[in-house]
Amino acid sequence: MKLVMAIIHDEDAFHIMDVLNEKGYSVTKLATTGGFLRAGNTTLICGVQDDKLEDLVSIIEKKCKGRRQITSINSSHMSATESYVPYPVEVTVGGATIFVLNVEEFRKV
Ligand code: 2BA
């Protein structure tokens, strides 16, 4: 069994959960925050049998869109010697960042 942790854009979260539920996957949604943009994102966790892994990942891949986002770099990203002059940077926030972990044991009691 695998545990899939997918960090996705908030706007994609409910649609993708609908699709996963329709296909019989169990999923848990966590409200998370990206360390770089300091903006909200969503982390979905989903335990699946090994033979379902590729199907799950392909659903996430199809439904999650990458987005260009403009953000201001703030002082916490600068060294102490730099002056605080916020400036905009454009980053591409991925469709999804996916971690796949081996599950040692899965129990429902
Ligand atoms: P954030 O950390 O808010 O990052 C948002 C986007 O900013 C990233 O998109 C990337 O394009 C850019 N970025 C991140 N760190 C950067 C840095 N040090 N310098 C320049 N640009 C940087 P994605 O790579 O698609 O990541 C989207 C979100 O997925 C991230 O939000 C973070 O919450 C999570 N994430 C991505 N890679 C991760 C990893 N290796 N470990 C844990 N979480 C990760």
Task: Report what the structure shows.
The chain has 2 helices and 6 strands. The chain has 109 residues and is of the alpha+beta class. The strands form 2 sheets. The protein has a 4-stranded antiparallel beta sheet. The chain has a two-stranded antiparallel sheet with strand order 4-5. A hairpin with a 6-residue loop joins strand 2 and strand 3. Bound molecules: ligand 2BA. The site of ligand 2BA has 12 residues, from strand 5.
Summarize this structure briefly.
Helices cover 22% and strands 39% of the residues. By secondary structure, it is α+β, with helices and mostly antiparallel strands.
What is the topology, as strand order, of the major beta sheet?
Answer: 2-3-1-6
User: Number of DSSP strands?
Assistant: 6
Nearest-integer average pLDDT: 90
Largest sheet: 4 strands, antiparallel
Say what oligomer this is: single chain
- Return residue spans where pLDDT drops below 50 for at least 5 consecutive residues: none
Radius of gyration: 17 Å
End-to-end Cα distance, whole Å, is 17 Å
**Which structural class do the helices and strands define?**
alpha+beta
Question: What is the ordering of alpha helices and beta strands?
Answer: EHEEHEEE
Give the overall form: elongated
Indicate the percent of residues in helices. Answer: 10-25%
